[in-house]
């Protein structure tokens, strides 16, 4: 709690377009909701960037002493192929194409997502609710909105009435859309759609006989609209008004705009005090996206198995690469940029090692508290990780000068700097030394060698199930085996 009082965070609120002083509703508690993945496919690096950005927010707030309840959902129903409430459910489609149960698709990609998050050292959220686990809450919320006269039923589907809502509240504030212009510009729907107005959106959709993911409701069998799950789950776990809502920039409209409308309609209150939007990761200058196929997968980067890459990069290096850009800037990924990031990352890790080996002096030649304060100042300024990293590099430069005898620190200052820098690098930025073998190289080597020997024996016995399983499991934890005529070697990827 002491630290919370020392630091003032200025946070860019996408709703007002301004940096504002962060003041939680009930300090030291903070409620934060971030839209999670739709689990019908492997997460790509773009998705990972957004979750890494909010992981730093979560870590930093906790580091300052806030008690954060971080809710990040799993979208396992209701997200249709097209944002205009048309098309097939993404998960149901995948299930149909692969002849799986929808829940098999959900399970497979949820597990995959968790594995990738763990490799990136992204902390699990406090609560990870699923849309299918909250159908009851979603139906209740729809009833409330209907009771307020802000939704209507057509043939077993329920739509939010944006025009009616606008008679009472503003709509389009977050995304900065001028809704009158949008309305004037859109053709009347004239029977082509059930919606009264093209801006209306589905709260509940009637399930056609072919739709496999369906639930009972007061309006017949159907499924919830995508925007509704986040409103129902954020309300349930964080209350009608909570502190921070985050997600990628692409979710501002319509998803977040609709979330605001649903919650305001149901509770007569704007739900979120600070909206935060993370910018996009691009590849060849274009947004990384599942639907266009312009993607790089985390596994491809960790193994280097993509023609775009000259070699593998470890999760910590990729995380560092991402944190070298501010979360509100776009970031283009390239092999050269990753290689440069790798050098920078090693420099930081070397600084940590060096700090624990330096000899103290009688006097300090610089102010360690000021150096550390500069890193905090950067993080307090809308979580500015690139500036924080630049300040850490400045510390790294000074530490190298101490080694060369050109700067000096007392034992006490050295201890302070070492503690502060390792907390900032490891706990707040969430970077971890990817060379697990560094501390105990001999033991690590010996253990891997035992596994290699067991695998080679299995191969000699033609027990390929076992030998392949050892190879694949090692790869899963980032250790790649290479066979050559001289024997088997390994690399940590
Ligand atoms: P989805 O699984 O498509 O619902 O996306 C999960 C999260 O990843 C959302 O917050 C998106 O805004 C975010 N996202 C999608 N594409 C990118 C990208 N290229 N860069 C950064 N974040 C992204
Ligand atoms: Zn959402």
Would you kindly provide a written description of the structure presented here, covering whatever features stand out?
The chain is of the alpha/beta class and 493 residues long. The protein has three domains: 2-278, 3-Layer(aba) Sandwich (Rossmann fold), CATH 3.40.50.620; 282-428, Orthogonal Bundle (Isoleucyl-tRNA Synthetase, Domain 1); 449-492, no CATH class. Helices cover 46% and strands 16% of the residues. The chain has helices spanning 2-6, 45-63, 90-98, 102-119, 135-147, 162-168, 179-185, 226-238, 252-267, 298-303, 315-323, 335-357, 368-380, 385-403, 411-428, 441-460, 464-476; strands at 10-13, 18-21, 29-34, 67-72, 80-82, 86-89, 151-154, 157-160, 201-206, 222-224, 242-248, 272-278, 281-283, 286-287, 331-333, 479-484, 487-492. It has a four-stranded parallel β-sheet, with helices on both faces. Strands 7-8-9-10 form a four-stranded antiparallel β-sheet. Strand 3, helix 2 and strand 4 form a beta-alpha-beta unit. Helix 12 packs antiparallel against helix 15, helix 13 (368-380) packs antiparallel against helix 14 (385-403) and helix 13 packs parallel to helix 15. The protein binds adenosine monophosphate and zinc ion.
Keywords, separated by commas or semicolons:
493 residues; alpha/beta; Isoleucyl-tRNA Synthetase, Domain 1; 17 helices; binds adenosine monophosphate
